[in-house]
Design goal:
Helix content: over 70%
Distance between the termini: 25 Å
Order of helices and strands: HHHHHH
Number of strands: 0
Shape: elongated
Mean pLDDT: 93
Low-confidence stretches: none
C-alpha cells in the first residue's frame, strides 16, 4: 500500500466522518472535513490543492456562522426562547445515552415539548412550538450538511484534476 493511497484513504475517512457528523449532529462536521482536505493538500502540496483547501475552509467557515445566525433569526421570529433549544440539546444528549440509536431524537423532541408545555400551558401550542423548533434545528443541520457536501465536491474535483495532471 503506497503512502499516497493511505493519505487519500485517511483523508476520505475524515471527510466521510464530517459528512456523517453533519447529519447525526454528534460531532462537528467542519473540523473533520477541513482536516481531511488539509491532510490531502499538505500531501499533494500544489497550488490547486491549497486552493481547494482554502475554498473548502471558506465554505465551512461561512456555514459555521450561518448555521447559528439564520436559525437564530427564525427562532426569534417564532417567539421560542433560546433556552428551549438549549434544554432540547441537553435532552438529546441524555437521550443518546439512555436509548441507543434513537435516543438523541427522542430526547430532543421530548424535552422541547415539555419545556414549551411548561411555558405555554397548552398541549396544542406546545406541540406547534415543538414542531417549529424542530424545523429550526433541521435548517441548521441542512446548512452544515450542504457546506460539508460542497467542500467535499471541491476536494473530489481537486483530486480528479490532480490525478489527470492539471
Amino acid at each position: 500500500m503506497s503512502a499516497s493511497f493511505l493519505i487519500i484513504l485517511i483523508s476520505g475517512l475524515l471527510v466521510l466522518a464530517g459528512i456523517v457528523g453533519a447529519v447525526v449532529q454528534i460531532w462537528p462536521s467542519g473540523p473533520f472535513v477541513a482536516g481531511g482536505i488539509l491532510l490531502w493538500a499538505f500531501h499533494v502540496n500544489t497550488p490547486l490543492a491549497w486552493g481547494v483547501f482554502a475554498f473548502a475552509l471558506f465554505i465551512l467557515a461561512v456555514a459555521f456562522v450561518a448555521k447559528f445566525v439564520i436559525p437564530g433569526r427564525k427562532l426569534a421570529q417564532s417567539g421560542i426562547p433560546n433556552s428551549t433549544l438549549i434544554w432540547g440539546l441537553v435532552g438529546a444528549v441524555v437521550g443518546y445515552f439512555v436509548i441507543p440509536v434513537v435516543g438523541f431524537i427522542v430526547g430532543l423532541v421530548a424535552v422541547i415539548y415539555v419545556v414549551e408545555y411548561l411555558r405555554l400551558q397548552s398541549p396544542q401550542d406546545a406541540w406547534k412550538a415543538t414542531l417549529e423548533a424542530l424545523k429550526i434545528v433541521g435548517l441548521s443541520i441542512v446548512i452544515e450538511l450542504l457546506a460539508a457536501l460542497v467542500a467535499t465536491s471541491a476536494w473530489i474535483g481537486g483530486m480528479i484534476f490532480t490525478a489527470i495532471g492539471v
